[in-house]
Amino acid sequence: MSLWLCLRFENFFLQSLSLEEDTPIAVFQDQRIISINNHAFFSGIKKGLLIEEAQALNSNLQLLKRNKSAEKKCLEELCLWAYSITPRLNIWHNSLRLEIGGCLKLFGDLNNLLSTIDEKIMNIGYDVRYGMAPTAAASWLISHRERKFNIAFNSNLKERISPLPLNLLGNFNPTINKLNLSGLNTFGDIIKIPSQDLKIRFEGSFIEFIEYTLGRREEIFNDYYPKHTFLEQQWFDYSVRNKNEMISSIERLLVSLNVFLSKMQVYTNKICWLFHSAGGDVEELIIQSTSCCANYTIWHRLTLIKLENQIFKTAVEGLSLRCENFISISSRNFDLFPQAETQEPREDLLDKLRSRLHSKNIRRLGCRDEHVPEYAVYTAADDDSRLLSNIKNEFNERPFWLLPKPQQLKHHEKKLYWKDELHLISGPERIEDNWWSKPISRDYYIAKNIYGDHYWIFCNRRTKRWYIQGIFP
Amino acid sequence: MNKKLKEIINRPDTWIAKQQSNNASTSRNNLLQDKSLSTGFDSINEVLHLNGWPLGASIEVFEEIHMNGSMSLLLPAMKHLNRQNRWQVFIAPPYIPYAPMLLNKGIDTKKILLIHPRSEEELLWITEQALRSTTCSTVFSWLGSKKYRYSDLRRLQLAAAEGDMLSVLFRDGATKNTQAPSSLRLLINNHRRVTVLKQRGGKQNITIQLANEEKDRFKLSSIKNLQI
Lengths: 473, 228
Fold this sequence. Notes:
heterodimer; A: alpha+beta; five-stranded antiparallel sheet; elongated; B: alpha/beta; eight-stranded mixed sheet; two-stranded antiparallel ribbon
């Protein structure tokens, strides 16, 4: 069963700009007042007054110009929150219309769902009127009649909308004027007229609206779909050079991102900070996390580590946080049997280190199935998934340390030196390989110095030169 | 016993005389057993206060010039801790660990992280972060020959105390006379010869010469007539 809930924001022009109630505030458009708070209302100010008239009534009146982009942003935020309740919703005349019939099971029952919504609306502080009906259009109309939720939404729809004045439909003004002149003032008056007669007399869009309202025709609209980018800005009121002064803004933006991720039900593995200078230059700071996460603490910690090393060429005037890489929560795999030894994911340490060090400074150890020692071991970037460690050869004694490159030994009077004189104690073990390109033929020995340290050395059979390649523990 | 007093007694850095004499110290010993790990060498275990490497405390290993053998002391512990699904971190290692050898010893090299700091400041920062992280079972950090401030080493000791990992700081033998808050300080000044310079709650200035493994170790063919 289809059930629509309309949340109509009554004082939206004002409340999208300010929720202040201690001082009289009014929003104006085309020199006329279009929205006021309670304080201004009690001063005698009304909608429709000219600015000068309103100011004459209260000299302390704070006037704000209508800001459509602020309204749009507020609606975006509200939609994002509403999207966590139901995926079927749309915006209609500064109202949100939510199809809640399909998500009643999710919330247990209608009462639970409504109390969740009510609690959120109370926290936001907006003046909201509610309307519940089987159609989206009717829910909006009913929101003009009922102040609170009316559980009796299933009662006769025609009866509920009959007393409502037709003037509510401001966008059908010419039609409404004609109807008023004919003595038809309420929806009840319209409903009584046979639909065929209405279709002949009045314009198509008005008739369509009535049919949508009464459920005679299904209303087709584009559901809201959340945008794929998070981008928010904070501007400082002054030029900032000290990084500590940025921290509170960073925290605010991260909280905002966290809310966004939670409502979108997604994770991210990359965020990007943009530092805006007065001259218009933008410096970028990218933070990555191996474990995709929506965890505020992780992003906060990684940002502060990376920020510590960031050098700004000029003073910073503003800060933006951008996030475009999202991963759906459902596509993540979780370990059914998490390791008991670690309280945090192993990737956390990598992320922390990567925030401060270049990735080339963080290496993983890999192993190849090769005979030549320098080819058998390699180090790779910490995120290299090609690391191998399952090659297991049965070979002779091998050193713990391998020199990055074999170092030539000093050779003097038939004695070998590497810092100190070396004595061969075991060998040789011949290693030959790479005959198809650059042939390698070596005889390996174990040698020790006067302190007893053991080394892995070899003689290049072609050049007859001696090299040290490894150190035994 | 008073709860607070019991907590103090159970700290691994509290030393109690005649430990075998009462029940309290027996239970403490059991508790401390969890805070230590066998070295894999009986002769070393015997002289160590906790009968093994202290976990959750920093160990300093001083290597005299040319000495590179200290890893042989730590290989058994490294192998044991490799069973855990945690990192084994090498910070500023002098060379590359030879992966085939580690694999042959049963050590999974996928759990090994090699970190190469660009400065001493970074070296201390990385070491501290690794010690504070619960994701590491082993932290080996090569601090080199620099004489670090006591406060820097104290930070590392405190960071190590937060966890339960094996934490070893390798330092140049020339710095062995500097003050440090480590729980255990060892000197290696000859092949397989270990001197306990300091240990909290245990005996000091004891030298252990580990048996030479050459005979067992190098089973290669004897050196033939060789012209160097």
